[in-house]
Each structure stands twice: as structure tokens, then as C-alpha cells.
UniProtKB/TrEMBL annotation:
InterPro entries: DUF6343. This is Uncharacterized protein. Keywords: Membrane, Transmembrane, Transmembrane helix. Residues 73-99 are annotated as: Disordered. Residues 86-99 have a biased composition (Basic residues). The lineage of its organism: Bacteria, Bacillati, Actinomycetota, Actinomycetes, Kitasatosporales. The chain crosses the membrane at residues 18-37, 43-62. It comes from Streptomyces montanisoli. It comes from the Bacteria. The keyword Membrane applies. It holds the Pfam family DUF6343.
């Protein structure tokens, strides 16, 4: 629900998330290679899992970035008026009640 106090210049942190994921991919893949060469399979597997998670996050962030900006109402659009009255959020099913 809009409250009217949203910042006008708010930006999505997708670029920051992308670079943090690239950083995680770099360190995860590098750690996996180093641990494989050192013969420590458990840590190599953990680092490879981190690299795979970072790679999946990169794919998701790039997809979201390619979607482009979405409509955000400007300052001239007032916040939504709350619903007043006896409107229930989850109305009861009528067929479950016996008279």
C-alpha cells in the first residue's frame, strides 16, 4: 500500500546485487579450484555451491535488469485511501455455515 512517503529518487539496488554476485562467483570458483588442487573436497564442494548460487543470482538479476523500469506513481498521485467499513479481508464461505 502506498503511504505517500516513498522517496522520489528511489533506485533499485540491482547493480550492487549484480556486482556482489560477481564477487561471490569469483571467490567461490577460485576457492573451489584452490581446494580441489589442495585435495580438500568438502571445502571445494562448498565453494562450488557458493559459486553456483552466485551464478543463479547473476542470471536472475540480469533478467530483472532487462525487464526495465516499472511504473512508479509520481508525487502528484495521492496515496491510496484506506477502505473503511466492515469489509473482511477473508470472508467466510457461505456454504460452510448452517442457519
Amino acid at each position: 500500500m502506498r503511504t505517500g512517503s516513498e522517496p522520489v529518487t528511489a533506485r533499485s539496488p540491482l547493480r550492487l546485487r549484480l556486482w556482489l554476485s560477481v564477487w561471490g562467483l569469483f571467490w567461490g570458483a577460485g576457492g573451489a579450484v584452490i581446494f580441489v588442487l589442495a585435495g580438500v573436497e568438502v571445502w571445494a564442494g562448498l565453494c562450488a555451491a557458493i559459486a553456483l548460487i552466485a551464478l543463479a543470482d547473476i542470471a536472475l538479476v540480469v533478467h530483472r535488469m532487462r525487464q526495465g523500469p516499472h511504473f512508479q506513481p509520481g508525487r502528484d498521485i495521492p496515496p491510496y485511501e484506506p477502505v473503511h467499513g466492515t469489509l473482511r479481508r477473508y470472508p467466510r464461505a457461505q456454504h460452510l455455515h448452517r442457519p
